[in-house]
Amino acid sequence: MQEKNAKESPIIQENLLAELESADYDRAQAYAKDLLAGLKIVRTFPQGVTVFGSARLKETNKYYRQARKLGELLAENGHTVITGGGPGIMEAANRGAFEYGGRSIGLNITLSDEQHPNPYLTDMLKFEYFFARKVMLAMSAKVYVFFPGGFGTMDEFSEILILMQEGKMPVMPMFLIGKSFWRPLDKFYASKMIPLKTIRSEDRRIYKITDNIEEVVAAANKIGHPKVKTNYYDGFAAAQHKSSII
Question: Residue 119 contacts by C-beta under 8 Å, 6 or more apart in sequence?
Answer without folding.
Answer: none
